[in-house]
Design goal:
By secondary structure, the protein is an all-alpha fold. It is 82% helix and 0% strand. Helix 1 runs parallel beside helix 4, helix 2 packs across helix 4 and helix 2 crosses helix 6. It starts with 5 loop residues before the first helix and ends with a helix.
Length: 181
Amino acid sequence: LSSGSRRKSLFAGIAFSIAIFISYFFMGLGLYTAIGISGFTHTFFIIVAILAIFVGLFNLKDYFWYGKWFVMEVPLSWRPKMKSLVKGISSVPGAFFIGFVISLFLLPCTSGPYIVILGLLAHVATKNYAISMLLLYNFIVILPMIIITIAVSWGIATTSSAERWRTRKIKILHFIAGMII
C-alpha cells in the first residue's frame, strides 16, 4: 500500500505470496528428498508422529493459556524486524525478494505441521504424489495471504482491520490448528 497504487499493491502482495510458496515448496522438497535418501523413513515417521502430538498439544495450550510460557507463532522479538523489512517495500520485485527473506523467519515457526506432512509423505507416498501434495499444501498456506491481499487492495478491508480480526481470533485459530494436527 505504500506504493500508493492499488494495482501495484495487489501485484506486490501476490509476488510476496508466490515467493513464500516457492521457498516453502523447495525447502519441503529438499527435506522430503533428504528423508527419502536417508532410508530412515519409518524412524522419521515415528519421530514426526510424536512431534505432531506435541505441536498439536502446544497449539491447544495456546487456546487455553495464550501467551503463557511460549506461543506457537513467530516470536514477538522477531516481529519488529519482519515489519521493518516489509514496510519499506513498494515494488513488485522488492515484495518478491522480501517474501523469500520473510519465509526464513516464518519457517521455524510454521515447521511443525510442515514436518508432520513431510514425514507422512516420506512414509507413504510416491515422489509424484508427494510433489502434488506439497504443491497443494503450500497453496493452502498462501491462500490467506492472497485473500488478504485482494481484500486490502480492493478496499474491502484494511491491514489494521485484518490484524484486529487475527488478534481477536488468535486463540480459536490455535484451537483449530491443534485439533487438526
